[in-house]
Design goal:
It contains 10 helices and 11 strands. The protein is an alpha+beta fold. The strands form 4 sheets. It has a 5-stranded antiparallel beta sheet with strand order 1-2-3-5-4. Strands 6-9 form a two-stranded antiparallel ribbon. A two-stranded antiparallel sheet has the order 7-8. It starts with about 25 loop residues before the first strand and ends with a helix. It binds 2',3'- cyclic AMP (ACK). The site of 2',3'- cyclic AMP has 12 residues, from strand 1 and strand 5. This is Protein kinase domain-containing protein.
Amino acid sequence: RTPVEPITSNQYEIDPKWEVSRGRLMVEECLGEGEFGRVLKATARDLPGSPGFTTVAVKTLKDNAGSSELDDLMSEYQLLKEVSHPNVIKLLGACTAPGGPIYIIIEFCGLGSLRAYLRRHRNINSNSEAINSFQKVNDISPRDILSFAWQISKGMAYLTEIKLVHRDLAARNILLATGKVCKISDFGLTRDVYEDDTYLKKSRGRVPVKWMAPESLSDHIYTSKSDVWSFGIVLWELVTLGSSPYPGIAVQNLYHLLKSGYRMQRPHNCSEQLYEIMNECWSGSPSERPSFTYLVDKFERMLEDGS
Ligand code: ACK
């Protein structure tokens, strides 16, 4: 990849419904960064539809980003304009006018990514005898795990309904807002499949192999059913409080293992019922995997039963 000029593009049409002038953002800190992008925490003044000050997260590109990263960020912006669901991250505005970096403004989720949240709560859980009851308030209960699974299913059922395939569903891409509300995020890889049922992947750098369905690995086929496979991996991440899937298995060997029927074993604290759901999500045949609507129902009933 050849380094390019910093991204301050003016090739995109400004959308007056969402455009915010850069002067209305006060950047406070960097929440995290990847290879080509970063997420900033900022305070925004008078966002479209929200007068006054709002704490927000801002997605932007680093100087080494190229036109494909710019395209990804802009396509994420376009997709976010179309979505509206309590369990999907909400777009608040954007700065795309010439004369500065591109900023995509999204709601701030005070508890960070679900994966980091689960991992942060590990020690608290394992040392629960040694700590006082004040700290135990922060524990993750089996009910929380079910509630997360239910909320993520609801967000995904919505995305399925509007014909969006996420393609990178993983605990790292789910954000947690205060009140433990799950928000599906990171639409960078998402493609609108409205005209074409299965998006054929362009050759790209990093692919989340351990979250991918066999048909995505072999034929670059992405559908809501391949999202269901990834959701099965998210369930495994939930019950293991943010472990990395297929520990000890090299990504190069995974496809053949999966094709020969290998699946991750039941984590020791995982109920038979939940493990059964995971395995249904990991059906070799996409049509045999449950739908997200079915999963919403299933988790709703499990929550009601207190199981
Ligand atoms: O686990 P974290 O604290 O939560 O670290 C990552 C980091 O930025 C890089 O993605 C955090 N992050 C991303 N989007 C948001 C958001 N909308 N609200 C709060 N934190 C965010 C994420």
